[in-house]
Amino acid sequence: MIEQRLRTPLCELTGVRHPIVQTGMGWVAGPGLVSATANAGGLGVLASATMTLPQLTDAVREVKERTGEPFGVNLRADAGDAEERCDLLIREGVKVASFALAPSQRLIGKLKDAGVVVIPSIGARRHAEKVAGWGADAVLVQGGEGGGHTGSVATTLLIPQVVDAVDIPVIAAGGFFDGRGLAAALCYGAAGVAMGTRFLLTTDSRVPDEVKRSYLQAQVGDTVVTSKVDGLPHRMLRTDLTASAESQALLRRLPQALRQAVAFKALTGMSWRQLITDGLAMRKAQKLPLNRVLLAANTPMLIKSALVDGHPEAGVLPAGQVVGMIDELPSCEKLIDSLVTDAAEALRRTGSLSG
Prior knowledge:
- The protein has 2 domains: about 10-210 and about 325-350, Aldolase class I (TIM Barrel); about 220-315, no CATH class.
- Helices cover about 50% and strands about 15% of the residues.
- The protein has helices at about 10-15, 30-40, 55-65, 80-90, 105-115, 125-135, 155-165, 180-190, 195-200, 210-215, 240-245, 250-270, 270-285, 290-295, 300-305, 330-350, and strands at about 20, 45, 70-75, 95-100, 115-120, 140, 150, 170-175, 190-195, 225, 235.
- Helix 12 packs across helix 15 and helix 13 (about 270-285) crosses helix 14.
């Protein structure tokens, strides 16, 4: 484990040794990956959207048993029990609350008053300005290269936009996988980088080996952004399933989406009332028609089919474009050590240039 070499405002804010964040990927970012990241000096973020409240409690306590380092939990701001989940983080002394959608100003204030660092994820400058005005401690900014639900503005354009617009630390995401990228992000003014696909492809990730092989075989051009699978722009590996979704009419896919919603309800123990409430909240937040909201119920179970059950041909494989640049499966410790070492060397070389 290397010593701290790059101290940034992200390190100061969260207490981590290195300015590197492992994102809260559903079904992937469990206690094992999160604690491995934390022990290696990065900020591991636990994914909670696919967990019940009791499961989240158990997962948080397992991470605390595995590491004494700071870590975070990713929350859905529009979830019906978001308040209870925030209470859990406060009660358990979790250092960071990250959000896939902007939390309310009241919720940000509640968490901050309890000493929890609040980091919403955003995809546009105006959203960063809004949450910064509400008191968010930092923002995670994902450019269009990123995997999962993503926007259309490239990271190289979005990061400087946001850095110039807000006075809180900016964490860059979308397109990062090595030390050169970390160095570049710091030069843009970011306080660190966040990575999903790169951490998914580590030995500490619980994704089945055969699924990891599917990722390692992919090229840079093998991802596609489509809204046909779950109603929102979603970057994933190009598969027979995505091709089928692209070619099918919306009405033909709604019955499958309803079946997936039933399966997700059974898996999480959610009531129909809670499921409908969350769906309506999503409709309001994302400004989606009801048929697109129903499609969104596809996502958790389709991702689970691929990343947990090991059936990539029958599920969804979220992936950033960097998937085509990755050809090995290091441990989290080895990955973070190489990122920091290579970034420091890149910055040293840059600093040694003379006019």
